[in-house]
C-alpha cells in the first residue's frame, strides 16, 4: 500500500525552505493561558530519559519507541521523534514525566502536550497511510511510578487539518524571519567600521576574529586595555555572519559594565555602519527585571503572569517590528508592560529571535544556561564572544561547584513547614545527624573526602526526595527558609552526580568557634571537562582580554579544543606614557600588613603632592583598604578621598565613578579584583594614576593548598603553584593598572607596592611595553 503524501511532499515538490522541530512548532503556535512557575519540582533530564524507557519497557511486544517522523506543508518541513507507537492498538503515545498531582498542572501546558501529540499523529498517518489513530498522553510520576493515560480518537482528516493550521501560523512568521535574515546578511556583507579609522590594533584583532569564524575555530586573543577590543571583536564577528551562515552571535560578559560597553558598541555599529537591521537583545538577571519583587510567577500572585501566553504573540511582534532593533532592558520592559506581560520572560522568548544576545557568562556556560539549552534545542549555528575571559576560570568553578552550610539546615529545620510536617522534619533531622557524625570524625578543622560518606550522601538524597514530594503536593505554600535549603541541596546533589575526583574535590571545614558542624564543599578546581562541551556546541568562539598570559594556563583550565588559535595584539602605547614604579621597600604580605600601612599612606601623599589629580588605590581586602584609608585621612585631611564599600548597589557604584571628573582631585580606595578594578573607563584627566598595594595572590589556606596539589598532579609542580596563586593574582594587578592608560593621549603613573614585583617571574607577566622603575 502506498502512503498518501503529506502536503508539499508530492512528486517533484521543491526542497523545503524552512525546517522546524515538532516541539518548536507547537511552542510557537499552541501555547496559551497563564505563566505559572510556582514551585513544582520537575524531574531531571536523566530522570526523564529513564521514565521514557520505563514506559516503553512496560509495553507489549511490537511497541515502537522513538519513532522518527517528518512531513511537509508547502515550503515547511516538520520533523521530530514520537515517544512511542503501538501498532496493535493503533495508538501513538506522547510521554511526559512529572512529580505531584496532575490536578495542579497548568491547563495551558496540557493543551501544548495535546498539540504535539496531534502533530505527531498526522505525521504518522501520512507516513503509514492510516485513516485514524488513537492519541494518548502518558503522564508518569517518577516518584511513585504511577502512569496516568489520557486518550482521544482522531481521524486522519482531523489531524491533517490541525497540522495545516499550526504550520500556516508558523509559516507566516518563518517568511517574515527569512526576509529579516536576508536583509540582515546583505547589510552585514557591506558593513563598514563604526569610525573613519581603526585604532592601532583594532584592525588586527578584528581580522583574527574573522579568520577564526571562517575556519570554525576557537581563538584566545590577548589585546591591551584601551584599544577598543569590544568594538573590534564585534565587527570581526559580524562580518563573518553571512558567509558562515551564523544564526546567533552571543556576547558573554563577566560583569554589568562589559555588557553595557557591548551594547554601546553595537549601537555605534548600527549608526555608523551600513545600517544593518540587527536585532540586539540584552538579557538581565530576573531580580533586575521583575516588576513585582517577592511575588511568585503565577497568576494569583502576579498580574503579569495572567494570560501571558495569550498576549505573547502581539508583544513578540511589537518587539521585533522593523526599526526597533536595540532591545535593551528598558525597551523590552516598555513593550512588555504595554501588553501586560512579564518583561523577564518576554526577554527569554525574544532570545529565540534575536541576532545578537548580550548577557552574562552563565547564559551559556552554566549547566542550566538558557542560551546553550536553546542552541541545542533549536540547532543554532552560534558564535561566542567571551569578554574579559580571564574571569571565566573562577566563574566556571562557581557554576560547577556547590556548598552546603549548617546555617541553611538550621533555618530549614526551624521553618513553619518542618514544624508541622513530620515527613519533612524527619528528613531534615536525618541529614543533621549524618552531618554531625561527619564533623565528629574530622581530625582537625579541615578534611578532604575521596567521596561523600555513604550515610550523609544517602540522607541528602532522601531529604531531597522528601522535599520534592512535599513541594509537589503543596506548591501554593512556599516556605522561604525551606526553599533556600532545598535549592542548595538540589545543586549539591546534582554536582555530586557528576563528581570527578581528578578535577574536583569534596571537603569539609569546621566552622570557626563552633564545637560541632562544618561546611561542606564540592569544589570544581579545573572546569575544563565541563567547558569543553560548551566550546564544542559553538561554531566559533573568541575569548578576549588584556590579561591572557600565559596562554597555556587558560587553555588547560578552560578546556579549549585542540588546535585552537592564539593571538596577541601589540600595545599601541609607549613607555613614556606610563611611569611604572616598584616600591621595593614595602611588603604587603599578611605578616607585614600592619607595618605597611604608614609607608603606603606616605607614598600616596608624596605622589599626590607632586602631581595632583584623580587616583585609584587597590587593596587585597576591605579590611586592608579601611586601615590605609583611615591612616591616610588622619595624616592628610586636606586631600579628598572616597572608598568602595561592601555590597554597593549600581547607584552607589555610579556615584563612586561620578567623582572622577576632568578637573577633580582625590584618591579613591578600591578592592583589587572588585567592581572598579576592570571594565571601568576613565580616560584623560579623569584618572592619572593608580596604586596597587598587593600582588593579588589568593590567601594560602588548606582548601587552596588542596587545589594546588590537584593542579600539580595534572600539570606539574611548577604550574601547580603558579596556576593556583601567581597567575590569578597578577591578572588582577594588570587589569587594575590598565585603568590608567586608555588612549594614545593619556599620561599617568602606576605604583606597584610590594618588593615581590621586582622578581623576574613576576616581571615576566607584566605588559611588555611597561618600563618598570625601581625593579
Structure report:
The chain folds into 4 domains: 156 residues, Lambda Exonuclease, Chain A (Alpha-Beta Complex), CATH 3.90.320; 174 residues, 3-Layer(aba) Sandwich (Rossmann fold), CATH 3.40.50; 125 residues, Fumarase C, Chain B, domain 1 (Orthogonal Bundle); 199 residues, Rossmann fold (3-Layer(aba) Sandwich). The strands form 4 sheets. It has an 8-stranded parallel beta sheet. A 7-stranded parallel beta sheet has the order 21-22-20-23-24-19-25, with helices on both faces. Strands 1, 2, 3, 4, 5 and 6 form a 6-stranded mixed beta sheet that branches. The chain is of the alpha/beta class. Strand 5 and strand 6 form a beta hairpin. It has 27 helices and 25 strands. Helix 3 crosses helix 4 and helix 10 packs across helix 11. It is globular, with a radius of gyration of 29 Å. The N terminus is likely disordered. It starts with 17 loop residues before the first strand and ends with a strand.
Specify the helix fraction band.
Answer: 40-55%
Counted beta strands: 25
Q: Which geometry do the CA atoms define?
A: globular
Number of domains: 4
CATH topology call of the largest domain: Rossmann fold
Ranges where pLDDT stays below 50 over 5 or more residues in a row are 1-12
Q: What do we call the CATH homologous superfamily of the largest domain?
A: P-loop containing nucleotide triphosphate hydrolases
| Average pLDDT | 92
How much strand content do the residues show?
A: 15-25%
CATH level 1 class label of the largest domain: Alpha Beta
Largest sheet: 8 strands, parallel
Strands side by side in the biggest sheet: 10-9-11-8-12-17-7-18
How does CATH name the architecture of the largest domain?
3-Layer(aba) Sandwich
Radius of gyration: 29 Å
